[in-house]
Amino acid sequence: MEIHLSPQLAKKVYEGNGGSYYAWSPSELPMLREGNIGAAKLALQKNGFALPHYSDSSKVAYVLQGSGVVGIVLPESEEKVVAIKKGDALALSFGVVTWWYNKEETELVVLFLGDTSKAHKTGEFTDFFLTGSNGIFTGFSTEFVSRAWDLEEKDVKTLVGNQSAKGIVKLEGNINLPEPKEEHRKGMALNCEEAPLDVDIKNGGRVVVLNTKNLPLVGEVGLGADLVRLDGKAMCSPGFSCDSALQVTYIVRGSGRAQIVGPDGRRVLETTVKAGNLFIVPRFFVVSKIADSDGLEWFSIITTPNPVFTHLAGSIGAWKALSPTVLQAAFNVDPRVEQLFRSKRSADAIFFPPPN
After folding, report:
1. What secondary structure does DSSP assign to 329-347, as a single string?
2. pTM above 0.85?
């Protein structure tokens, strides 16, 4: 069966006067459905407000651009109000109520990647809004709402009918949303651009891994993530997830080339990737990327909270761990060629600077 892995751009799903919501469709990227993965983006203009809602899927949110505020209500907990900015990652389990707000001139753009194995639609997020023209209040009769909240009928009609927008609005007037609290941020968000580096190769690249150690909530979400920044013309070593995890990659910045190799030594993807692209690497498939001159940056989720990767090149590569005679037999070469192969890429690296 042919596997469709070509990178895709998100399509607009809906918009309001305060911003837009985009998503990737399983009909255009079938691996979303096959891998039980959802992907979407929220873009808020100045004073844009995403109405309170919850989702049927666990997600990792990553701030691609701008700064703003997110309100988070965990089950049976008080609201946490967290300041967010470019580079921040948050783990959101399904059923958590959130709202998002941008009061700055720069557009706030947030990427959502998550697990749809328990979702209503495989490969898609379904959001349930508390208010607005498609809010859950609109589905209940006046009697049910009035009895649940002990309100008079006229007040119910005002409560349910005044917010005529859907999903995203632009706040006008004197509404002052709650200010973020620093203590609320602890354990809720991690800035991947400021966190200690897990990998740092001169003229090669840098990696920050999001896992249960630096953001424990990813354990509840069941997803890990990483931010990878590849320098111009540098290469990311061919590698694969060795714990049966899918890797879902969003290109944040720059451009480059990517190749994916699957069973039977067949190259299943060779493509150019650029900012805004999303693509998926199937379980155990080997992927490698080479950045163009402007470099390449991507954010990935991995469908396990503590991912493990095997790289095939460099001193940490699996090939270097095999005995010389095993390599000679495997490649059917003499000792000279085997030694040449082994002596190259001896640095302890997963990123390789451009050749001299």
Report:
1. HHHT--HHHHHHHHHSS-S
2. yes
